[in-house]
Design a protein that fits this description.
Radius of gyration: 26 Å
CATH superfamily of the largest domain: Aldehyde Dehydrogenase, Chain A, domain 1
CATH topology of the largest domain: Aldehyde Dehydrogenase, Chain A, domain 1
Helix content: 40-55%
Strand order of the largest sheet: 12-15-16-9-8-17-18
Largest sheet: 7 strands, mixed
Structural class: alpha/beta
CATH architecture of the largest domain: 3-Layer(aba) Sandwich
Strand content: 15-25%
Length: about 475
């Protein structure tokens, strides 16, 4: 499918609006972010109904997304004046008469490509940051959630300034859209597509943020509180039916507590989702708190994984493609280099590998691509320090699960195969801002003019040596 001429026209109009300076006004930015917050309040039920029809996502999870955006909007409104002011830079001996600062400036026209798994928060949080920074925006919503995308398009284009902000719901790929001359691209989605987008924008040197997937590992040490660790891992693995970029993909557990941990995971899932049905049988499928897979093809993909490892299933394994249901499933994995360890599962299937100790877990983790997050459950300062020093990832979460994404100012992002760039809080504003280094001279002392202009005399060389030695001495004292 070729890009419609209207999208080219939309971008051209947005570039003209940006050049007019309309989006630079702080009050304008605040008013547009306020309208995003108002949508979350006034159309809350519309968004819930739309996403339920698309996804069968538990209502509480949808409300969490909506509440989060409301909070993000007011965080931006309340801090925008401070964020936009920039920061002053300290002077040195040579520049003592200058005012030095680092001041944020909007990039211009921004493309935001949002995924389907958390379609409200992954579209509107970057949107808020891009508005706060003063950009015009084209927001591409996922065609996998058509009812929600149509509703959000209607609400955004009705309530926000449609000269500055546009929404696309048509099934154009990121590669197609990034052929247009945007000034910045923000993409959330798979590593495979992210790599293609990066190749496209790099040809035009367009800056980009890539929030990608990652086969996020977890290590459970023998000194951890096993029941607490199991509940937190079971919860994050089943949240949104495991369709979450920062969920635990697989677990390495110390051999001393391996069986206790597996039993605790099973007990946690049963306590979360079991519903008693006739004849006193228990059935997770009836639980209103257990979400569904986004589509039948994705369900079939997970069903194939379960079939491949069916002889290693410890718990679960039930599927229903027509209902897009996959039961939380525990697999005992003896091969740390198997496909379900190396690749992101993106579903409620949890492989568990028994290891000798933290050293073996770290060695396996470091053999694979750098993940979005690493999860660690241990009370040992030594073990924690080893993970801090010897592993590499976008983030490290210690003794927690889902709540690692809750702090509003804690930066979120990957490294290598799991992405590049950060957002959340001021980092979202920073992502969509180009920081300009400003040097403003108050006046220049004649002596300095004489020092830097040729021809150079022995006297001037001696003065330069004096300046440099004092500067060096000052730097050493600071160190």
């Amino acid at each position: 499918m070729s890009l419609k001429a209207e999208f080219v026209d939309i971008l051209a109009r947005q570039k003209n609006v940006f050049l007019s300076g309309k989006t630079l006004d702080i009050d304008f930015r605040r008013s547009q972010i306020q309208k995003v917050a108002d949508i979350m309040v006034n159309h809350r039920q519309d968004l819930i109904d739309a996403l339920c029809s698309d996804f069968k996502k538990p209502v509480l999870q949808i409300k969490t997304e909506i509440n989060c955006i409301y909070s993000k909007a007011y965080q931006a409104i309340n801090n925008l004046q401070k964020w936009a002011a920039g920061v002053s830079i300290p002077n040195d001996m040579v520049t003592f008469n200058a005012h030095l600062s680092n001041v944020p400036q909007p990039y211009g026209s921004v493309l935001i490509i949002a995924p389907w798994n958390f379609p409200i928060i992954t579209s509107l949080e970057p949107l808020i940051g891009a508005i706060a920074a003063g950009n015009t925006i084209v927001l591409k919503l996922s065609e996998q959630v058509p009812a929600l995308s149509a509703k959000m398009k209607q609400l955004i284009e009705t309530n926000l300034d449609n000269e500055c902000f546009s929404v696309i719901t048509e099934p154009y790929s990121g590669e197609q859209l990034t052929q247009l001359d945007f000034d910045y691209v923000f993409y959330t989605g798979s590593t495979e597509i992210g790599r293609k987008i990066y190749q496209t924008v790099s040809k035009k040197l367009i800056p980009v943020t890539l929030e990608l997937g990652g086969s996020c590992p977890c290590y459970v040490h023998f000194d951890a509180d096993i029941d607490t660790a199991a509940k937190r891992i079971a919860h994050i693995k089943a949240y949104n039916a495991g369709q979450m970029c920062f969920t635990v993909n697989h677990v390495f557990v110390h051999k001393k507590v391996a069986q206790d941990f597996k039993d605790a995971i099973i007990n946690a899932w049963k306590s979360f989702f079991n519903i008693v049905i006739p004849f006193f049988r228990q059935d997770m499928k009836q639980s209103p708190d257990l979400g569904r897979i986004i589509s039948e093809p994705h369900t079939e993909r997970l069903q194939a994984i379960i079939e491949k490892y069916k002889h290693q299933i410890v718990f679960g394994g039930d599927t229903d493609v027509s209902d897009r249901y996959v039961q939380p499933t525990l697999i005992s994995c003896n091969d740390p280099n198997s496909e379900i360890i190396k690749h992101e599962i993106f579903g409620p299937i949890l492989p568990v590998c028994t290891v000798e100790d933290e050293h073996e877990a770290i060695n396996i983790i470091e053999m694979h691509q750098k993940p979005l997050k690493i999860f660690l459950f241990s009370n040992s300062a030594t073990v924690i320090d080893r993970f801090l020093v010897k592993t590499r990832s976008g983030g490290l979460t210690i003794n927690e699960g889902f709540l690692c994404a809750a702090p509003p100012d804690l930066p979120f992002g990957g490294v290598g195969e799991s992405g590049m760039g950060r957002y959340h809080g001021i980092e979202t504003f920073n992502t969509f801002s180009n920081y300009r280094a400003i040097y403003k001279e108050k006046y220049r002392v004649g002596l300095l003019d004489n020092l830097i202009y040729p021809p150079f005399t022995p006297r001037e060389e001696a003065l330069i040596d004096t300046f440099e030695s004092k500067q060096y001495s000052r730097s050493c004292n600071i160190l």
